[in-house]
Structures are given as C-alpha cells and as structure tokens.
User: Which sequence fits this backbone?
C-alpha cells in the first residue's frame, strides 16, 4: 500500500480550521475569560489533524512546529530580558525618576506629541519596539496618568511611536526579517518605506497635537503633586537615573546584540537599586525575576510600579511558543498558500497587489499569533505574484512590513498584543482605536500604490540608491 501523496487543503477545510480557531480565540479571550494559550494549543491539533488527513506524517508536522518556534527564539529571549529590565529599573528608581522629572517638565497640552516623539526616537535608536515600550513607554504611561490623560490614548501614542521607530531602524529584527525574506537589501527596504512612513508620522503628530489641547486645563495638579511626593518618599530621585538609560541606548545604537545589551541594562538597574535605593543585594537581584511589591496607598502609583520581572513575561512566552508553532503548521499544511491562490487571479494591478499583501500580513498575525510568522509567511506567499507581474520586490518588503509590523499590536492574542497590553496595563481593544500611526501608514501605502506614487523603481529613487555603496 502506497502512502497518500501530500496535497493542498480545500477552501472548505481551510475555512473550518481557521474559522474554528478564530472562534475559539475570540470566545476564550472575550467571553470565557480563558487564556489565549489554550486556544492556540487547540489550534495545533486542528492544523495537525488536517495535515495528517492531507498526507503529512505526524513527525513532519511536529518538526514544522518546532522549526517555527526556533525562528522566534530571539523574540523569546528579548521578551524575558525586557521583563528583567523593567523590574530592575523600577527597583533602582530609574523609571520613578523619569516619571518624576517628566511630570515636572512636560506640559499636558504637548504630552501626547512628546510621547510620540520620545518613543519613536527610542525605538529608532534601539531597533526594538518592545524595549522602547518597556523603558520610555512605561515612563510615559506614568506621566500621562499623572497628568490626567486617559491610559488608552497614551498607549496609542506610545505604540504609534515605537512601531514607527522599529519599522525604520536598521537594527530592528522586523526590518531585517521583512527585507531578507523578500530578497531586498536592508537599506533599500528602509528607503522604500521612508516617504510613506514620514507622511503618516507627520499626520499622526498633528492629530495627537490637536487631540492633546483638550488636556491643557484638565490636568489635576493636586494629583501630579501627590504622585511626585509618593515618588520622593519611596525612591531616591536623582538625575543619575538617566545613566543606565543612556548606556543602553548607546550600546543598541552601536548595533550591539539586543539580548545581552538589555540584560546588561537590567544589571545596571540592579546596581542602582543597591547603590541609590539602599536595597539589599538579594532583593535587587530578585527584581529581575519578579516585581517588588509596593503599597504606597496610591492606586495609580502601585499600578505603574508593581510591574516587570521575567516571571510576568512567562504567559507571553507561552503565547509566542504556541503562536510560532501554529504558524509553522499553517505553512507546512499549506493553508495560507491555498488562501493566496484563491485571490491570485483578482490581482490585476499594483494597488490590488499591495492591498492583498497587507491583508495577508494582517491575517498571518491573526492566525499565526506572532509578527515573526507574518513577516516570514507573507513574502513567501506573495512573492510569486510580484514576480509574475514584474513588480519590484522592494514593494513586497514594504507592504509586508506595513501589514505585518503595524498590525501586530492590534491582535489581542498575538505576541505583540499580549506583550503591549500586559506591559502598559491597557487592553488591546482599548488602545487599538488610538494606534493612529498604524492606520495612517496602512491607508497611505495602499492609496499610493493605486496612485503609482513613491514606487521604488522611480527614476529619482533609483538614482538615489546608486549613491549607496554596495
């Protein structure tokens, strides 16, 4: 008896697997208050069951899931490092000092604009949206709540900034992944995104500036003063707290690997806790694993400062492991390839091609539960259509980045959605309406593709690229 040959799934089979997973993910998170990890675990067996039916062996499917997980190990290590960094930087008085000086100097009317700029510059310099959110983002959440700005709005400004900076940084994993999977040089990839990204950024900055004017007279200065007094009573506030921040940003800007640099930053935070906060060495070391328990009597302060530690990231680690494995199974079984074949004939121009690429990247986030899955699978699925239509691969890498990176924080059960919601203390559904940079960027990249503007193979674009060394 010959083994069944492997074959692609039908659209009905694809609909049953993905529809069941999506229903489970939504019902578990929104209705039953169950962890998304369980839905992802069930998703593995749905995909594996279909794979076996289509002629794949269980060992091959297990290997595909393991390979998918392996591709995301870098993200898992960085996630744990960011947890350690946040925990020690709070224990060492670094985050409290930033919040204190921020409340002292930032006016409520420009707070959202300042948040956008600070977070974007941090992500651009470091190449990590998670690191930027875990440092500058945490501080801006504290300042914003002290100034009376709603937490979801502040979170939206933070995410708009960190994803903008991450998307244009040559140090970013997402930039490297999107360009390499599309066979595009990193510099060319960034150049292709720059005009549209800057346009979206300017529009976002204007929107947050106008929106921020309403908070000019709404800041509760009594609360601001109370927050500053609590900070002073529980921490030794000092400009010295900015030294670890500057050190980490400098090392990341020098293209040093993210994981050891962020872990080194957590060691600095531990030393600051011992030297400047008079904490016992064991207590300072413990803050790398679990946050210090702080009861100041101020709910806002406790909410901001009782965070961090590797242990608080373990749930997100499980999401990434299950999500990456699920993405590997979807690729192996051929589910996303089947979906791509269905709309391949509908792609008749560059506008349609860009729109379908962005949509594919978004749904790879939805069903793959991880940005890495999206940036790996989207170029693989869509590259044939770009080559068939003789469209520059730089448009593929650009569209995959816009669709994969800018939507990664919008999915409640994705790695970015889980991480950002847990870190910032705001649910995904609450902050998504304020991710204005993401919405503007996606709308513009599709609109300009239909209009034929900012094409990578424009004459002036090609001329500028020729100035770059090979």
Assistant:
């Amino acid at each position: 008896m010959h083994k069944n040959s492997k074959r692609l799934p039908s659209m009905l089979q694809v609909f049953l697997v993905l529809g069941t997973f999506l229903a489970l993910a939504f019902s578990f998170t929104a209705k039953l208050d169950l962890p998304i990890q369980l839905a992802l675990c069930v998703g593995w067996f749905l995909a594996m069951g279909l794979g076996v039916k289509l002629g794949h062996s269980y060992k091959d499917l297990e290997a595909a899931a393991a390979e998918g997980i392996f591709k995301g190990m870098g993200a898992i290590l960085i996630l744990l490092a960011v947890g350690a960094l946040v925990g020690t930087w709070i224990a060492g008085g670094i985050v409290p000092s930033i919040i204190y000086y921020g409340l002292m100097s930032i006016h409520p009317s420009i707070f959202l604009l300042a948040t956008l700029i600070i977070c974007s510059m941090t992500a651009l310099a470091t190449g990590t949206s998670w690191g930027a959110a875990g440092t500058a983002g945490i501080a801006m959440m504290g300042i914003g709540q002290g100034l009376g700005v709603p937490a979801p709005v502040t979170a939206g400004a933070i995410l708009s900034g960190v994803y903008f900076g991450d998307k244009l940084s040559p140090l970013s994993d997402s930039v490297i992944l999107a360009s390499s999977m599309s066979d595009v040089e990193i510099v060319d990839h960034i150049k292709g995104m720059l005009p549209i990204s800057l346009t979206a950024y300017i529009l976002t900055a204007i929107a947050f500036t106008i929106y921020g004017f309403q908070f000019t007279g709404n800041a509760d200065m009594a609360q601001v003063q109370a927050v500053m007094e609590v900070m002073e009573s529980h921490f030794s506030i000092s400009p010295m707290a900015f030294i670890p921040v500057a050190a980490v940003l400098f090392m990341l800007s020098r293209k040093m690997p993210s994981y050891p640099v962020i872990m080194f930053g957590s060691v600095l935070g531990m030393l600051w806790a011992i030297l400047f906060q008079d904490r016992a060495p064991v207590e300072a070391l413990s803050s790398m694993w679990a946050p210090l328990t702080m009861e100041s009597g101020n709910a806002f302060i406790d909410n901001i400062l009782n965070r961090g530690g590797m242990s608080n990231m373990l749930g997100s680690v499980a999401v990434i492991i299950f999500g990456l494995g699920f993405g590997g199974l979807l690729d192996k079984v051929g589910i996303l390839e089947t979906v791509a074949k269905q709309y391949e004939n509908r792609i008749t121009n560059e506008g349609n091609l860009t729109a379908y690429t962005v949509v594919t990247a978004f749904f790879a986030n939805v069903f793959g539960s991880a940005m890495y899955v999206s940036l790996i699978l989207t170029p693989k699925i869509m590259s044939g259509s770009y080559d068939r239509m003789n469209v520059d691969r730089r448009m593929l890498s650009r569209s995959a980045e816009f669709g994969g990176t800018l939507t990664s924080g919008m999915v409640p059960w994705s790695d970015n959605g889980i991480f950002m919601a847990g870190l910032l203390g705001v649910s995904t559904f609450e902050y998504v309406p304020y991710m204005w940079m993401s919405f503007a960027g996606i709308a513009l990249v599709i609109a300009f593709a239909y209009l034929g503007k900012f094409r990578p193979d424009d004459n002036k674009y090609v001329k500028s690229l020729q100035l770059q060394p090979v």
